Amino acid sequence: MVDIMSATVDWGTGKGAKIDRPAAGKTGTSQNYHDAWFIGLTGQLVTGVWVGNDDNSPMNKVTGGSLPVNIWHDFMLEALQGTPPRRSRCPARGRFACRRRAANSAGRDRDRDRQRRRAGPARSPGEKHSRRLRG
Questions:
Q1: Phi, psi of 87 (to 5 degrees)
Q2: pTM
């Protein structure tokens, strides 16, 4: 889960949250822009930022990846000033143990190859898009 949330900060909707240390997070925006938030963490601190109007009226297209990320970024720089960077800790054992990025990318490549084998031979652009189900 931390790896997925790290991708949000590395290159996703929360990329404005990048700071001087590893970080992970989740952006969110409710329907019609009533609420926007960013929940982020580092190895030292977890912080959530919510933005919205007290009267529940919609905001002017504020998303979780905009104002909440900027507020989180500025707060975390100040809050962690003088603290050495540290990776987020993960469980050492069990079903939900963290995998390192190298293992993840190898796993993704293996899964992608497996999916390609299941899909069968590649089709030319003019062929129909029907799929044969294999049983």
A1: -70, 155
A2: 0.66
